[in-house]
Write a structure and sequence with these properties.
The complex is a heterodimer of chains A (167) and B (629).
Chain A (H helix, E strand, L loop, with lengths): L2 H13 L7 H12 L4 H11 L3 H10 L11 E6 L2 H5 L2 H12 L13 E6 L11 E3 L2 E3 L4 H24 L1
Parallel strand pairs in A: 1-2
Antiparallel strand pairs in A: 1-3, 3-4
Helix pairs in contact in A: 3-4, 6-7
Chain B lengths: L5 H17 E8 L2 H5 L2 H14 L4 E2 L10 E7 L11 E4 L3 E3 L7 H10 L9 E2 L5 E2 L6 H4 L17 H6 L4 H8 L3 H10 L12 H9 L7 E6 L8 H8 L1 H15 L3 E6 L4 H16 L15 E6 L9 H8 L23 E5 H13 L1 H4 L10 E8 L5 E6 L2 E2 H8 L8 E6 L5 E6 L2 E2 L4 E2 L1 H6 L8 E6 L4 H15 L5 H18 L5 H17 L3 H4 L3 H9 L1 H10 L13 E3 L9 H5 L5 E2 L7 E2 L9 H5 L5 E3 L1
The chains are: A alpha+beta (167), B alpha/beta (629).
Chain lengths: 167, 629
């Protein structure tokens, strides 16, 4: 782990007073920055919090929101709550997976751009079926709208890349 | 500025109420998760822009000495009518505009804010085309009774001043200065308030058990881990009226002698976390949280603890384990949470809606609360009405309201087909239905009536299903959910749900036998008798209740290998009706596996041995000639 990353971790730990009971909040802060929990960072916080590595690993793997694998730049979550399910959310999931060539076992695209996940309920049932892209809710989806959404994300990425190339 | 005494709170209340009144008109834009997704924040920004451009005085926050008659522009909590969002309410007239777009803002300002005209195009029209100008006249709202959601959508969700202006923190003052802890507990007991999180345990009894504990440190915990798929009542309360949640918890603290509180919010609700944090900060600034509240000598600190995505954390002991920084697994009880809860200390654990009911009970008294709802089931219940229903949204009705009234009068009826069933109580609940032997539509929705038919109120998710929903598939869906979310600690739940899911998968995919049904029944009773926690014990409920009320549907899957609703793909055979087929060959071209063949202008046929039942041909056929058999 680089010195720069260690500094980030120390700041996070400091903001939680090195409190053992805050281990979940600390991991959430780390994931917010790095989009996943790198192994060496878990070892580092275990040491600093005087917890065993096994305990930290146990907590990290228990909760659905934590990922030990790197995620794509855009995390797409398709809601499969009851309300979305009865309004045919499965078709949207299948469509998005087909477009991006990902599966349940391999949720992230090779270019690290997209990760596709399901989520049990986002509580936006009034707008079912919904999906979120990096926590922004897209209401009343269907496979057609999903295709458009993915294309828009890809386009905006291409534009961003062009702009970066020109610089 | 800090409020130091009860008298000062009263003075401020008058000031804030007067400031509210000087706002000639108020524009309340719904900023609940639903309407935000529909673009309500853009509408808010556009409104602000137009008011500025036109030089109209506009107050975004409640000011002590407002500059004359201005327009109040605010982000409110969820108005409930999510189907029609984004919603915009205009006070004092009480006009509700539905499906508002940024392009409508100019006209709204011109006609309804500067002028007093109502724009017909934007008001709610029912199926017959009748227009409703005022929110309270719309059938969806007219039949509701709002207690917990009283201010949700009517005040600025981010303003403590507005909350105080409408009577907020009055109940805390009463609890601190007029009542003893025992009197508060007695008032709650007399109101017969029962936990709104599912179980319906009497809140007063819970509080009195914690009050009786001799420990010095006690905790107040709010369960905001609303994990039931299809439920969003608690989310709307935390987002739309966060101070009410805080006030309810504060009263619980005063009643039981606890000085620390935690609100456990699931990570899927970022907006709720944000609004609660803002509310806690403002309450601390005003001295309504922290040390020496209103000069009473009572201290109370409140923190937010965020979940990380585990349904089981809605269970009490798993929730406290999660706040402590552990894997969120339930433990064996006793000792119960009221004796050894968070950090092994006596703990009051109630859900969001329960706390929201506390301030009005203390302010208005138990006698008032008893006038709502039937005996032993007093008060109201908020429901999230979703699925195949015309008006999806958030509603609050007196306990004991009939299902018919909720679905047809408030919900506007079933969408996309005829009524088949309602799933209530999430993965722990059951189905209500109409079939020849049972009619649940006139069933009263309250704790005791639902228990009698093998369902439970749960946290309040009501998912309406039409005749195109397959009940076996619904049971499979819930079992898949429960199996995914099983924490793995006890064997009956960990292994039992897995086996039940396998059996249901077999039935849905055409491999079912009568033995499967028998095994499902055996497993269901074993799991509910032996699982460790409440979630495990009720894991089989969706299967048990669908088997009870939709047994023929299970039998069709198993014996005839047919899915009557046409949802289970493996059991569906697609066939072309030769009468309707024009022989256009479109189906043959869209078929991904080349299973359709024929001669142009003559009826085509499907080779069932090749067909993968994807349904692409059926969707594409312009003559509706392809049918499921």
């Amino acid at each position: 782990m680089e010195a720069k990353e260690q500094k980030v971790l120390d700041e996070i730990l400091e903001s939680h007073d090195y409190n053992q009971t805050a281990v979940i909040a600390i991991m959430q802060d780390i994931q917010k920055i790095y989009r996943y929990l790198p192994e060496e960072m878990l070892c580092y916080i275990a040491k600093k919090l005087h917890l065993s590595e096994a305990k930290v690993y146990g907590v990290a793997t228990f909760y659905e929101n934590f990922s030990l694998e790197p995620k794509g730049k855009y995390v797409i979550k398709i809601c499969d709550g009851t309300a979305c399910h009865v309004r045919q959310s499965t078709a949207i999931l299948e469509e998005i997976r087909a477009i991006l060539g990902v599966t349940a076992a391999k949720p992230t695209t090779d270019d690290m751009m997209f990760t596709v996940e399901t989520v049990s309920c986002l509580g936006a049932c009034g707008l079912a079926p919904v999906c979120t892209v990096n926590d922004v809710v897209h209401p009343a989806m269907n496979p057609e709208k999903a295709r458009v959404l993915i294309q828009e994300l890809k386009d905006s990425e291409a534009v961003g890349k062009e702009a970066a190339d020109e610089d | 500025m800090r409020i130091n005494t009860r008298e000062e709170l009263e003075t401020r209340r008058k000031e804030y109420a007067a400031s509210l009144k000087t706002q000639r008109k108020q524009i309340l834009i719904c900023a609940g998760t639903g309407c935000v997704a529909g673009g309500s924040l853009d509408i808010y920004a556009r409104m602000q822009e137009i008011l500025m451009e036109r030089g109209i005085k506009c107050s975004l926050v409640l000011e002590k000495e407002p500059h004359g008659h201005s327009i109040g522009l605010k982000k409110s909590g969820c108005h409930g009518f999510c189907e029609m969002g984004p919603l915009l309410r205009i006070e004092p007239e009480g006009i509700l505009y539905v499906k508002v777009k940024t392009a409508d803002c100019e006209e709204i300002i011109e006609k309804s804010i500067v002028g007093d005209e109502v724009i017909d195009r934007l008001v709610y029209h029912d199926k017959e085309g009748k227009a409703y100008e005022k929110q309270d006249d719309i059938p969806f709202y007219k039949q509701q009774t709002r207690v917990a959601l009283e201010d949700c959508g009517r005040i600025n969700a981010e303003s403590i001043k507005e909350y105080i202006a409408v009577g907020g923190y009055n109940a805390v003052a009463k609890a601190l200065f007029d009542l003893t802890p025992q009197q508060i507990v007695d008032e709650i007991s007399e109101a017969s308030l029962r936990g709104r999180g599912g179980g319906g345990f009497p809140t007063g009894r819970k509080w009195s058990q914690v009050l009786a504990q001799k420990e010095e440190v006690k905790y107040i915990v709010c369960n905001g881990d609303e994990g039931d798929p299809g439920a969003f009542m608690d989310r709307s309360m935390m987002e739309g009226d966060p101070h009410r949640v805080i006030e309810g918890m504060l009263i619980a603290g005063i009643a039981t002698g606890a000085h620390y509180g935690y609100i456990y919010v699931r990570a899927e609700y970022p907006l709720a976390v944000e609004r609660l944090q803002t509310a806690i900060n403002k309450a601390e600034e005003k001295g309504l949280l922290g040390k020496d509240i209103l000069g009473s000598g009572f201290d109370f600190d409140l923190k937010i603890s965020q979940g990380a995505g585990a349904f089981v954390c809605g269970e009490g002991s798993a929730l406290t384990a999660s706040i402590e920084g552990n894997r969120g697994m339930p433990r064996v009880k006793p000792p119960r949470t009221v004796e050894k809860g968070l950090f092994e200390k006596p703990t009051v654990l109630n859900n969001v809606e329960t706390y929201c009911n506390v301030p009005p009970i203390i302010s208005k008294g138990a006698a008032w609360y008893q006038t709502i709802g039937p005996d032993n089931n007093h008060g109201t219940k908020a429901f999230a009405l979703t699925g195949n229903v015309m008006n999806t949204g958030l509603i609050e009705v007196p306990m004991g309201t009939t299902l018919r009234k909720v679905i047809f009068d408030i919900g506007g009826g079933v969408k996309g087909g005829s009524f088949k069933a309602v799933q209530i109580g999430g993965p722990s609940g059951g189905c209500l239905c109409i079939n020849p032997s049972e009619d649940h539509l006139d069933l009263h929705l309250d704790f005791d009536s639902l228990k009698k038919v093998g369902a439970m109120i749960g946290s309040g998710g009501l998912v309406v299903m039409n005749d195109k929903s397959c009940m076996v598939e619904v049971a499979r869906f819930f079992m898949n959910f429960t199996q995914n979310e099983s924490c793995g600690k006890c064997i009956p739940c960990r292994e039992g749900t897995k086996r039940m899911l396998e059996l249901l998968n077999d039935i849905c995919e055409g491999r079912g036998t009568m033995r499967h049904i028998q095994l499902l029944e055996e497993l269901a009773s074993t799991i509910s008798a032996t699982a460790l926690c409440g979630l495990g014990k009720t894991a089989a409920s969706p299967v048990v209740s669908t088997m009870k009320y939709f047994r023929e549907e299970y039998l069709s899957h198993v014996v005839e290998k047919k899915c009557p609703a046409g949802q289970c793909k493996a059991l569906v055979t697609l066939a072309i009706d030769p009468e309707l087929c024009k022989g256009c060959s479109k189906c043959a071209r869209v078929c991904p596996v080349g299973a359709i063949s024929g001669e142009i202008k003559k009826p085509f046929t499907i080779d069932t041995s090749k067909c993968i039942k994807c349904g692409a041909c059926k969707e594409g056929c312009n003559f509706h000639a392809i049918k499921e058999a």
